[in-house]
Amino acid sequence: MFDIFPIRYIEPVYRPPSEAESLILPVTDGCSWKHCTFCEMYTATQKKFHARPEEEVLETIRHLSEHPYGHTARRVFLADGDAMVLSTRRLLSVLAAIREYLPGVRRISSYCLPRNLRKKSVEELKELADSGLKLVYVGAESGDDTVLGRIKKGETFNSTREGLEKLGKAGITRSVMILNGLGGIRHSEAHALHSAELANATQPEFLATLVVSFPKGDTRLRAAFPDWEPLDVPGLLREMERFIDRLALRRTVFRSDHASNWLVLRGNLPQDKEKMLAQLREAIAVPESAPLRPAWVRSL
To answer: Which long-range contacts (CB under 8 A, 24 or more apart) does 32-36 make?
Structure first.
């Protein structure tokens, strides 16, 4: 079944930037939702969703124990778009195999759609956490229900909040992502304020922002969001100022340093809030001297 490397990948394969050094282990292919009109990762035409056969995943893990990479791996990311769609039993089986055959692994993580937590209890999530699932990445995108509806996210403010609260109660670390500019000009303020409200309500351990972009065009987005107009760079910065100004977080690592971001912001909240606001306000007031990334560096 395996040639040189014991993992069968179906391209494209995506992972969060912070998982660059992780072993990427597919347990599903594609995304279980794939209707989001802003997303160019796992669309319906790009990669069909299905769960990998359980025995194939377990066999892959067993083979990894005989491969040099399996001996050096310290982190495992369960791919593709949402491993949490699998049943708790299947996830526990995978986690048990990783513990048995890859004993050097110290952290296991996954993408997570809030909708796929509805049938999982806090007790089940605690069992997953105790078995090694330490971190999940939740693309909340927005806390504004109008924006979420227009982009066909399949979530609401409340469904995302409920999912994040479940994860928090279970002791699973949450890394939440918000898309700067997703509401366009018309919904920018509501997008910023309600996204901050979502973060305040759930207190995630990590919070990040990316700038929405459409390298392949925005036709899919505009089909359901016909009045969407992109924010220019000053508009994106003003939206970020509103968002950060409204945050009331007690202990969160904040990052806005993805390649898509024009202005790099990093800090721990709440202590670095005023520093980041000052950076934003200076960039808005004196854009010609602001340390903005050139468009070619963003390479989107």
So the answer is: 32/81, 32/82, 32/85, 32/113, 32/116, 33/81, 33/82, 33/113, 33/115, 33/154, 34/81, 35/152, 35/154, 36/141, 36/151, 36/152, 36/153, 36/154
CA nearest to 65, candidates 54, 76, 79? 76
At 134, phi and psi to the nearest 5?
-100, -25
At residue 211, φ and ψ (nearest 5 deg) are: -95, 130
| Burial grade of 287 (CB within 10 A; 0-12, 13-18, 19 or more) | middle
What's 238-288 look like in SS3? Answer: HHHHHHHHHCCCCCEEEEECCCCCCCCEEEEECCCHHHHHHHHHHHHHCHH
Contact between residue 217 and residue 43 where contact means Cβ atoms under 8 Å apart: no
pLDDT of residue 299: 61
Question: What does residue 40 show for φ and ψ, rounded to 5 degrees?
Answer: -115, 15
**pLDDT band, very low/low/confident/very high, at 103 (cuts 50, 70, 90):** very high
